[in-house]
Amino acid sequence: MSDSTDGDAIPAPEGPANLIETDYEIGQNNVQLLGLDIHNPVFAVSGLSVVAFVIITMAFQNTIGPVFTGMRDFLTSTFDWFFLLAGNIFVLVCLGLIVSPLGKVRIGGRDATPDYGYAGWFAMLFAAGMGIGLMFYGVSEPISHYSTSFGGVTLENGVRTDWAPLGGAEGDAAAGEGMWRNCRSCHAIVADDGTVIQRGGRTGPNLYGLPGRAPASVEGFRYSDGLHQLAASEGGEVWTEELFAEYVADPTGFLRAHLGDNSVRSPMSYRLASGAEDMWAYLVSVSPEAAPAE
Ligand code: HEC
């Protein structure tokens, strides 16, 4: 990039090059306006579209929300194959360029040398990739916590419902009911008046009213020491969604971490790999005072 004498001209290629003959000069149709160098049709069309878009959105805020959501859902569910395919094709084309003769084409003339070294390029690409994530989540993360905190502290059956545990996943009680078959061999759900909500085994305690009750609190069930210790420990006084989710994911691991004692074992040998929030929502829905808000 060193040969150009005139700042505005295209730099002359370094070494031999196949130049295309044209009398087009860059910027020949531009207009100068307010100190800007503007390509008239491009600027006018894109500028007007942006302004029209913003005005229409502002004017019909409530109507346009569902339109955008619908469009996004339609595009992402109808053209998901296209996004995936396109991404893969881009990668394959790049890989193909590495091995094909086209990869040898040197932009800027046959003797041109890069302005930046590999380290510089990696740094720029990395910064661009990271930067966009930091810019986006730097704003979206605090805003989402801020908006979930609006409700203040709310407790239902001893369960905090004002935050969104599990990364905001909202439980689906119907899906949880469908998952009951995983628990049935050892647990039942039987209301205090004897109504059987879910038939099941007796290896584990009745799970009726679990949300908000203390761990190891079903009378007549012989719990392990670990679960009694959990109930006596700080932060383990009551089953909350967090505790529940951590517990069912790995009962022994959870007790060990929570009690700081690696000799505890949980007699519950089952681990629920995913869907704890749905299971919890189901247990809440069959609890004595089913949470009104959710
Ligand atoms: C293989 C049998 C078995 C299966 C399957 C099983 N559990 Fe358990 N579960 C137990 C046993 C045994 C205990 C008592 C643990 C103790 O005493 O430490 C228990 C305890 C619990 C507790 C603590 C209850 C309390 O009163 O403090 C919860 C919550 C629980 N299980 C949820 C589940 C859920 C939800 C499922 C299904 C996704 C499930 N379990 C599947 C055997 C099982």
SSE blueprint and pairings:
Elements: E1 30-33, E2 36-39, H1 40-59, H2 61-78, H3 80-99, H4 118-148, E3 155-156, E4 159-160, H5 173-178, E5 189-190, E6 196-198, H6 225-232, H7 241-249, H8 251-259, H9 276-285
Antiparallel strand pairs: 1-2, 3-4, 5-6
The chain binds heme C.
Would you write up a description of this structure?
This protein has 294 residues and is mainly alpha-helical. It folds into three domains: 1-115, no CATH class; 116-151; 166-285, Cytochrome c-like domain (Cytochrome Bc1 Complex, Chain D, domain 2). It contains nine helices and six strands. The protein has helices at residues 40-59, 61-78, 80-99, 118-148, 173-178, 225-232, 241-249, 251-259, 276-285; strands spanning 30-33, 36-39, 155-156, 159-160, 189-190, 196-198. The strands form three sheets. The protein has a two-stranded antiparallel ribbon with strand order 1-2. Residues 1-5 and 290-294 have low confidence and may be disordered. Heme C binds at residues 182-183, 185-187, 203-205, 207, 210, 215-218, 223-224, 226-227, 244, 247-248, 266-270, 272, 279. Heme C (HEC) is lined by residues 182-183, 185-187, 203-205, 207, 210, 215-218, 223-224, 226-227, 244, 247-248, 266-270, 272, 279.
